[in-house]
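@here heads up, posting the sequence + SMILES for the zinc ion run so it's all in one place. Ping me if the SMILES looks off, I pulled it from an old spreadsheet.
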Amino acid sequence: MSLLVKNVRLMDPAQGLDGPGALLVVEGAVAAIGADAERDALAVGAEVMDGGGAVLAPGFVDLHVHFREPGQTRKESIETGSRAAVAGGFTAVCAMANTKPVNDSVAITELMLTRAAKADLCRYFPIGTVSREMKGEELSDMGTLKAAGCVAFSDDGLPIMNASLMRRALEYTRWLEVPVVAHEEDQTLAGKGYMHEGAVSASLGCLGIPAAAEEAMVARDIILAEHTGGHLHLAHLSTKGSMRLVREAKARGLHVTCEVTPHHFALSDKELMKFDSDYKMNPPLRSEADIQAVLEALADGTVDAIATDHAPHGWDDKEVELPIAAFGVIGLETALPLTLELLVNRKVISLARAFDLLAAGPARVFHLDKQGLGSLKPGARADFVLFDPDAKVQVDRAFIQSRSFNTPFKGWSLPGKVLGTWVGGKRVWG
Ligand SMILES: NC(=O)N[C@@H](CC(=O)O)C(=O)O
Ligand SMILES: [Zn+2]
Ligand SMILES: [Zn+2]
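bot reply: prediction finished. Complex structure tokens:
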């Protein structure tokens, strides 16, 4: 099977590509790009598709999603989550381990992979827990889990308060060549807080989570990464101090990588004045100064990836008083539009840097580039997205493919319409 997509604006920062061109897919892999593609397509008798001048880019790689299967498929299943992914232009997702039961065994990893293969939409990479039963006490069988298909290890949802456990997990990352993904939150500082601690929480009389709850743990784990030489990947960073700590760690040559989410660069803690639980997530929406620091870190290379932390919850988890509502928001369908509107159109970053943050960067962090993800180099997997960067989307229930609708972007009109998504050369969306 072969396919030529012609008349597109080809973007692939990994190859320094940005210009009119074409892409030829043969047997699920990129066979040729540019002028060669049209010539070679004739030789193989490829099916021809006209891209109508839209942008063709490498499929996005999300390092951080919660698909709730097994255990809570009323919120999301691997199939509905995968559909939300491809609708948003994501061709690969890395799924967190805080399912029910948690992914601390080969049986759960295999179940997840079986369900993902059945859904047959995006590529699905399980993340194993760092600790058995996510209790934060003993290490899980990281080696066995990696052999079963886990690409990273995380107790996300919960911080690893036990420094000795984190130290040992980081030691294992060296020979397993996989990162530990840290949810940084000192529970003794966060307490029962449910929004950012600052002027807004004080005026509302809400319990706050200080920036220091995140930063104290980021600092601890950077020290442990240095001590062990392990690979520390910091999930959903949200504060100015975290950005500074990561910038320093990278300048000192440590193996420290990080991601930020669209909701943390799009929204501030002022949104909580609406007392709407769709603005409640962990880490919480931060101050304007934190957002500025995140934008600078996106621009200067401190941040490796934009990840969604897609965290579906049912209306019954959310339609309750703010202090008891579930933490988390969905994000797969809105990530590209928010990146285009708030980062590219406002000239915080270039379009090429946006794709580095959505595709090549995350692929590198979890070593998925070695499997041909994150770029459109000849020989790479034919995972790509075709989208119109100017056409508007309306964030309503029909637009969202996820089983849940806990998005703070309800009613927003944003640029960036995904026209089609291909995984291994097969059209899975549009
Ligand atoms: N981000 C959230 O607010 N919630 C996540 C857990 C997490 O990412 O820490 C969830 O699983 O719902
Ligand atoms: Zn988390
Ligand atoms: Zn998460």
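MO: The pocket of zinc ion (ligand 2) is lined by residues 156-157, 183, 235-236, 282 (CB under 6 Å).
MO: One more: Residues 2-56+381-402+414-429 form a domain with the Urease, subunit C; domain 1 fold (CATH 2.30.40.10).
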